Amino acid sequence: MIRIGANPICWSNDDMPEIGGDIPLEQCLSEAKAIGIEGMELGNKFPREAAALRPILAFHGLDLVGGWSSTFLLERDAEAEFAAARAHIDLLKTFGCTVFIAAECTRTVHGTRSAPLSARPVMTDAEWDLFNARLTAFAERLAGEGLTLVYHHHMGTVVQTEEEVDRMMAGTGDAVKLLFDTGHITWAGGDAPTVAARHRDRIGHVHVKDVRPEVAREAAAADWSFLDAVLAGVYTVPGDGSVDYIGVMKALPAYSGWVVIEAEQDPKKAHPATYVKMGYDNLTRFMTAAGWKRG
């Protein structure tokens, strides 16, 4: 079963809260529901207590998909990471979520506007061995809670490139699944359909955003930060950039789960409801063309 969700970063940014900071959560949820979105991931404007969050989502008829969790497995072991994630785990379980979105944020630069992407952290061989072992152990602990760890490769972090995604997947156990993000892998220089096909059996969650290649080239040439590139419009919604979405979907013929529109832009330049509607319409068209069936 395939369901279409959205991330509130389309309306209000988490890494730079002033982007869309004036847009209330009510507007985000009501516009998402009107577009046809079935569920939302967490954002900075969402309450993190189940008693407060449940009536908000229920009022809009939206499910909770899940939400980002920053891991620091290069700095602490799986047991300490699990303890740090306890409240998030409990919230996800309360709402019947099935995936735990994790991204390693040790030394990350993606949230620092003054740091160019060229300054991102790169792991040593010893750090790779440590990270993969701890990520596997953390994922196995989460499986015991009924949650599947889906790892979010991301620009500016230690797992950014196609080669790094491959190394992580090769070095971790089956409890670790991949959150495949079409925009991050494309901007990092990877070929989205190829990477999707290579890891199809372990892809447990999908984020869809598109890339404007001319902005990505300018960002590389001028050594921009991640946030400066986002503000300049490097990302957009599916069908408004260079990603081959039909190719990606055909590479994942047996995929079942959430497909989440997560296209961070400056809402002053890209009206959120207009762009998410565009992305939703393009996405459903691509799904039909690729033979994907919605549940």
From TrEMBL:
Record domain Xylose isomerase-like TIM barrel: where: 30-271
Gene Ontology molecular-function annotations: 3D-(3,5/4)-trihydroxycyclohexane-1,2-dione hydrolase activity; myo-inosose-2 dehydratase activity
Keyword field: Hydrolase, Lyase
InterPro entries: IolE/MocC (IPR030823), IolE/XylAMocC-like (IPR050312), Xyl_isomerase-like_sf (IPR036237), Xyl_isomerase-like_TIM-brl (IPR013022)
Keyword Repeat: no
Record flagged with keyword GTP-binding: no
This enzyme's EC code(s): 3.7.1.22, 4.2.1.44
Protein name from the UniProt record: Inosose dehydratase/3D-(3,5/4)-trihydroxycyclohexane-1,2-dione acylhydrolase (Decyclizing)
